[in-house]
Recover the amino acids of this structure.
């Protein structure tokens, strides 16, 4: 199994969760939409930046490596682009689950 196939599974699940959350937010109203979208965008940027930094450091330190035939060949520094699917999935799934499971309730 290549990283692309593995990433496809994670990203598909993440996309379904995010889509369900978007539907719920659309029903909730405009005020919540902006807050949720902003929080998800900030989360994605932070996770992608941290992944870029720490994956490059760990690969440079020799903590792990990848079989070249499982990668696309695209890299951000030393980190293969495939490593960035997990933070994208997390940025979709975690806020999505928070919304779908009720999150923090607002006081009246």
């Amino acid at each position: 199994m290549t990283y692309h196939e593995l990433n496809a599974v994670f990203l598909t699940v993440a996309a379904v969760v995010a889509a369900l959350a978007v539907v719920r937010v659309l029903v909730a109203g405009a005020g919540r939409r902006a807050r949720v979208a902003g929080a998800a965008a900030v989360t994605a940027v932070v996770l992608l930046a941290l992944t870029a930094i720490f994956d490059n450091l760990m690969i440079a330190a020799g903590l792990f490596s990848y079989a070249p035939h499982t990668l696309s060949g695209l890299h951000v520094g030393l980190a293969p682009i495939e490593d960035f699917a997990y933070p994208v999935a997390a940025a979709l799934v975690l806020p999505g689950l928070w919304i779908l499971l009720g999150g923090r309730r607002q006081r009246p």
